[in-house]
Amino acid sequence: MKGDRQAIQQLNKNLGLLLVTINQYFLHARILKNWGLEEMGEHFYKSSIVEMKQADAIIERVLFLEGLPNLQELGKLLIGETPEEIIKCDLAKEQEKHLALIEAIKVCEQQEDYVSRLLLEQQKDVNEERIDWLETQLEHIENLGLANYLQLGTLED
């Protein structure tokens, strides 16, 4: 099925953001594990896997639309040097993805590509949950202090 060029461009833009986020989450997971923050690292590792599955769904959709998935145009990774910076960097990347998803959903709606729109809406739901989780972690750090937050050792999903 030949897809709309604008919809494919938007899918590829979101694919690129997902690919950056996969790598960012994965690296943050390994950094946290190296620091002895295994539980926090595991949470970010699982997030990278979720992002990978979302990227896979976009790749399959672009191929179905007879487009070429663009895995080459990658943005910049935002790498934190402390646990708090890691959370802030990931929040910034998720907020960037959120804006791109909103734009892509509008374009798919205008181009009457409702299947792509639905795929992107589902990803936006996951994105919003992750933004909420990251903001909550930053609130915990602000309320408890970083040392107490890290000592709790449990992350709320």
TrEMBL record:
Keywords: Heme, Iron, Iron storage, Metal-binding, Oxidoreductase. It comes from the Bacteria. Fe cation 1 binds at E51. InterPro entries: Bacterioferritin, Ferritin-like, Ferritin-like_diiron, Ferritin-like_SF, Ferritin_DPS_dom. GO terms for molecular function: ferric iron binding; ferroxidase activity; heme binding. The keyword S-adenosyl-L-methionine does not apply. PANTHER family: BACTERIOFERRITIN. NCBIfam families: bfr. Belongs to the bacterioferritin family. This is Bacterioferritin. The lineage of its organism: Bacteria, Pseudomonadati, Pseudomonadota, Betaproteobacteria, Neisseriales. The gene is bfr_2.
